[in-house]
Amino acid sequence: MSGSELAARVRAAQAVDREAFDRRAAEEAERLKAEVRDGTFDNTEAIVGLELELYAVDARSGSLKRVPRGLLDLIGFEKELGLHNAEMQTSPQPLNEHGLVAQEHELKANLAPALDRTGRDDIRLVSDGMWTVPPTGETATDYLCDSVEQDGVRIATNMSDAARYHTMANTDYPTGMRVEAPHVSLSADTVMPESLITSIQPHYQIPHAPDLPEYFRYALRVAGPLLALGVNAPFFPPDLYDDDADDETIVEDAWLENRITVFEDVLNPDDDGAADKVRFPPDFDSVEAAIDDVVADETIVPMDVEAGQRFDDAFAHFRHKHGSYWRWIRPVFDGPTEPQANARIEFRPLPGQPTVRDAVSFQAVFAGLLTTLTSIEHPVRAMEWETARENFYAASREGLAADLTWITSDGEETTDLDHVYGELFEAARQGLETQGLPTDAARRYVRPLRERADRRITPARWKHDHVAAAVDQNVPLAEAIWGMQSAYVDHQEETLLEGTFVDWL
């Protein structure tokens, strides 16, 4: 798509009547509530799915690389924000032994030929939390901030050509378009800095849609402990660090999951004049309240939405509005046909993981936890929302070193990490067995994460230790980070499809 065509699409979005769009979304939300009450969004069983984002690097140098759009189409991956991004989604499957096996096999079935095909063009697809090596001959600052003005519209040079991405930089909403982290300060004219980060996103479809608030309440309370296990983004590209900080201080002050702050800083307003779009969500008293929260969220990019032939096109404006409802855990209501209509929880805190099995382990453990905690009405339900939120942000900064609060099955409060994860993993195993998995199979999904907790090691800690050791040997920070990243990619090349992160240790 040419720059003038893209600019025309952005201007078309700018011309949409925001108030009329919001009225349509609110009207559709009322119809959606009626369908939920009528049972249209119920399922006979729990169902799971997974989104997996990757970025591309040069197979020889390890530096970030733009993926030709034709190649992305050829391997069957979806476009994401940056030209270096790719995304795949699994088909929804029942939460049982065969469904989880199908999830893992589908990921491998798509990744294996994609890796082979991109390899012919010297491209390596990487599953990670944040890239750190910019394209050869460019700085990360230039790559993330490069933009042009086309017919009065600001367009990011290295961003995919989806009009909604570019419209975010051309609206009245005061999107921050910046990054603020320890010793990092970046300001851009577009939301392109968000393309630093990549994630996995497990989905859990609720059997009975009106029960979504109960499942959602538990999802918020396991968010901190699960994020602490999954942290994988302790370092930025080296040229983003401030010149006035020494290498040892940068390493010492590093947060272990900078993906959280990047997403919030880039998309949230940089003043107090508007509500944050990216945030830890509230508890909901009813499924209707969850739908109302989407409706009440400020619209950034209203667009003329054409109704198609899908069942959920009856809620097309609501669905479009939901696309910028950026909560770390969020309710989703959709389905291409009426029998496939579903209400689900999308769990968004987790960064990309070192291997497929690690990603599926998080998916299985999350699903197992929701199954057990809701069925036994676990006392952690009574944890204050503020405590769950504090757990979440503490985990993003410190990983497994964070002081995480949990309420045990006996109703007692604890911060003992072994007790916290002992209960979590036991509940996850029980939930998977409740769904028909044999004990050995359930333990197979839990084991990769249990070993992280037992060893007090995460991908972020592995990266941090690697860089810290190099800096201690007087290796310049940039070389230390790039050396760590090269080691990460090399390990992943050997284990992505058939191993786990703990195989690296």
Automatic annotation (TrEMBL):
GO molecular function terms attached to this record: ligase activity, forming carbon-nitrogen bonds
SUPFAM superfamilies membership: Glutamine synthetase/guanido kinase
Annotated protein name in UniProt: Glutamate--cysteine ligase
